[in-house]
Recover the amino acids of this structure.
């Protein structure tokens, strides 16, 4: 795929920024007109997120700046999805669903990445060991759980999506603890 799209005169960083713009449109769509259309746009943004790396590899233009921009953009896209869902009526399970969304944003999106980056930054662990920190619920697992919950929510009941958020928070906290233990 990268080889085919490499012929289009856009840099890998352009593809990254296009994916962010599509995610902004997706968030706006969820917040104003509809969940399904917005989720389809988020799926397009996710596909475009794969394009930037594929094009960079196909053109031999992989850079640290591009990797950094891609990682930062990934977090913005996750945040846009979660923030847009704050405008969508979700069922209350134990507490307001907006609190669960904030928990996913803080524990899943922010803290899991922060613990690894801060351990590396403060040189508590070597760069190599920071990259090996891993954990039970990293970004791919988090997205799979949330997407599965969202699909079940649309098909059956949005309760399933709220339960998926609760699960992501719990697993993210475990992941944070795993990473913290590797720093000691």
């Amino acid at each position: 795929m990268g080889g085919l799209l490499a012929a289009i005169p856009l840099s890998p960083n352009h593809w990254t920024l296009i994916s962010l713009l599509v995610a902004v449109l997706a968030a706006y769509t969820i917040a104003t007109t509809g969940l399904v259309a917005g989720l389809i746009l988020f799926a397009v943004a996710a596909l475009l997120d794969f394009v930037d790396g594929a094009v960079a590899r196909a053109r031999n233009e992989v850079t640290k700046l591009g990797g950094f921009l891609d990682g930062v953009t990934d977090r913005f896209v996750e945040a846009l999805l979660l923030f847009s869902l704050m405008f969508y009526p979700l069922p209350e399970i134990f507490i307001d669903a907006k609190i669960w969304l904030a928990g996913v944003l803080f524990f899943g999106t922010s803290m899991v990445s922060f613990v690894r980056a801060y351990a590396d930054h403060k040189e508590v662990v070597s760069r190599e060991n920071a990259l090996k920190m891993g954990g039970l619920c990293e970004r791919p697992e988090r997205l799979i759980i949330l997407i599965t919950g969202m699909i079940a929510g649309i098909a059956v009941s949005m309760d399933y999506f709220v339960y998926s958020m609760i699960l992501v928070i719990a697993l993210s906290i475990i992941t944070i603890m795993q990473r913290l233990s590797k720093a000691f």
About this structure: The chain is about 80% helix and 0% strand. The chain has two domains: 1-88, 90-184. The helical segments are 2-5, 12-32, 35-59, 64-85, 97-121, 127-131, 139-155, 159-183.
